[in-house]
Amino acid sequence: MWRIIVLCTIINLTVAARSTYENYKVFKIIPLRLNQFNLLRNMKGHGYLFWEEPTTIRRPVKLMVAPHQLPEFYRLLYKEEYLSYELLIDNVQELIDRTTQSIDSGNATYNLNIFPFTKYPTLKDIYNYLYYISLNYIDNVKIIVIGNTYEGNKILGVEISFNNKRKNPGIFLEGGIHGNEWISPATVIYILHQLLTSTDPNVRAMAESHDWYIVPLVNPDGYKYSHTTDRLWRKSRGQYDKFCLGADLNRNWDYMWGLDSDRSDMCSNKYAGLTPFSELETRVLKKYIDRVSNKFDTYISFHGSSQLLLFPYGYTTAHINNYNEMYTIGQIAIAALKRRYGTEYLIGNTAERTHIASGSTTDYIRGTYRKPYVYSYGLRGKDNYDFLLPPDQIIPTGQETLDSIMSMLREIKRRKYLKQQATKW
Ligand SMILES: [Zn+2]
What we know:
This protein is of the alpha/beta class. It is built from 13 helices and twelve strands.
């Protein structure tokens, strides 16, 4: 009897603990004057949640408003500032419900063809898949335990090579650093799956002429929490503060750390951590990257939902020395991406195209290892979905991103060849 009561209590607590966003709305607001900008900034910390924070005048802000705050929100905007706004998402929970249909992996046999690309995988699905391929592609796939997270979950990576005799150019793929951006690990695993199973000669040529270092889920704690408790959870789960947990793992890297505005606010979704590499996740991943850093020259990170292809730096608007080359390769990559379904991307360096953001993996890889080709995809899902992209978009996102990467790597290869020829003469 006691057992039943305890069990029921636990179930009730679990159900009660899951955050709900019924009738929460997301607005896009563009502050055109300083007082409008200040009004938005002052709303921070008063129960409003910014999906895109106010950083400069004229840059769009995305703000989530709870139903009980709507009257105040309308009053503030209309009466005091005459600030125009656009409703992007009418009911956040409705979109969440569409994304949270995860399959129960249970004891399912992990056949490569049944990996749930039509549903977002759980943490367990991802682990199962990685172990499955490491056992079934024993000659080509090596599983790497990169380290443990704050909550004791494993960060796993895979190294893929189809040619152990020759040293191929290395590509590093990084996904899932933000818990709520589910399309990121799903896309990385889609690409990984294609590298192993595609019969398309172009994919095979790309797969087999490179060595791959792939970490699909850098933030398992955040990802898991976003599945079990709060779909909007972005950060890690380390505890510093009674109320605000975790750090933004993509602000915690030790290269020009803490130059943006999120260094002091522990409750910010983009909190950079106490110090550079204060987070277990970034420390263990850094160690692994150190170990393989002489094996790759191209690093690609995947994020949710902006349809942007970005490159360093984020901490400064100053251009890197191969800015023009990066821009041109990026243009080729987004043109290839558009060809399949017409999905439009924009390109640029992070600081100019979005805003100043320091301590990211891509800044670190470029700044510390001086890697020539470092890109970051903000995948599908602009205003109407943002990171709550429905699962029926996983496969098209994977397909177009794979097209894009194939073009990118072909162009990089062509340029490397031309540079080699030029040095010969
Ligand atoms: Zn992200």
